[in-house]
Design a protein that fits this description.
With 151 residues, the chain is an all-alpha fold. It has helices at 2-9, 20-33, 38-71, 81-101, 106-124, 129-150. One of its GO terms (cellular component) is transport vesicle.
Length: 151
Amino acid sequence: LHCFLSCLLGLTHVQSFNSLPNCLHQIAELFITEKNGKALQFIQAEKMFYEVALIELTALQRDTPQEEATLGSAGATWSSPEELSEQASQAQHLERLAQLCIMSKPHLALEYSGKATKIHQRAFGNDHPITARSLELMATVYAEIGKTEYS
């Protein structure tokens, strides 16, 4: 825990710590095994990380249609492998957030998984295995919503 906190304190605002959500999740799992109430705090911190990522993604998506219109792009293309990797990473964050919300807030999970699926479709196409996995998560979320609404 002290190592984790020192890592956080060493970060500047502009640095990215892509392992942060995994660290938070692992710490929460440690506390869950001890049946400690602190686990909830780390789960909430992990969720907050993904929500911030979602806000940043939404802002990025608002800018993207303007850029595509300026470039005259009819299809979805990524300017570089780094941009594709960043979008794929954001989609993974959205999927993780959907998994965190699936039981407590399934409608929110559906929104997150839908956005992740849209990114995967745009990046990889409809027939790619990553897109198929994303669609499976969305179907799982729909099933969970159906269970809660019709039972």
